[in-house]
Write a sequence for this structure.
């Protein structure tokens, strides 16, 4: 079984691989790479399973699916992807990595979190991405956010 330090080293290695992969791919023809269908999962560190369930399931509406004490690993389902986690006191040091969830009404989503004492940034427009974003953190300092795309005119 891998300890927390080993897990951090593994995650740091994966992050380095993901950062360097685009550079490697640019040097090859796109037809040589079979393609990526979707992001399978993103993993974060949490300090307490029950508190994580309240935050991610009750506040954000993600579905808690699995946790194993033996593996120190579990996940929440979000759409067709997984927000995985392991038990740890600090967020995974991945620099300025943020996880954004798409919402239908960013103002209501931000107000809901504020009403539950979650510090939320002001909503800001991203014209180049055609939508709005707002930032917040989970109880362990993992950087999260909401994104609301502009409605397409018909």
């Amino acid at each position: 079984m891998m300890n927390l330090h080993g897990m951090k080293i593994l995650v740091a290695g994966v992050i380095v691989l993901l950062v360097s992969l685009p550079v490697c791919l640019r040097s090859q023809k796109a037809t040589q790479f079979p393609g990526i269908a979707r992001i399978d999962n993103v993993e974060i560190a949490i300090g307490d399973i029950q508190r994580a369930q309240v935050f991610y399931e009750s506040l954000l509406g993600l579905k808690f699916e699995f946790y194993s004490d033996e593996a120190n690993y579990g996940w929440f389902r979000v759409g067709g992807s997984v927000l995985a986690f392991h038990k740890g006191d600090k967020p995974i040091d991945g620099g300025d990595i943020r996880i954004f969830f798409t919402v239908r009404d960013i103002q209501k989503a931000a107000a809901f979190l504020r009403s539950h004492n979650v510090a939320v940034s002001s909503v800001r427009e991203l014209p180049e991405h055609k939508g709005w974003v707002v930032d917040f953190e989970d109880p362990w300092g993992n950087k999260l956010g909401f994104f609301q795309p502009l409605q397409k005119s018909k």
Notes: The helical segments are 4-26, 49-59, 106-115. DSSP finds three helices and eight strands in the chain. Residues 10-14 have pLDDT under 50 and may be disordered.
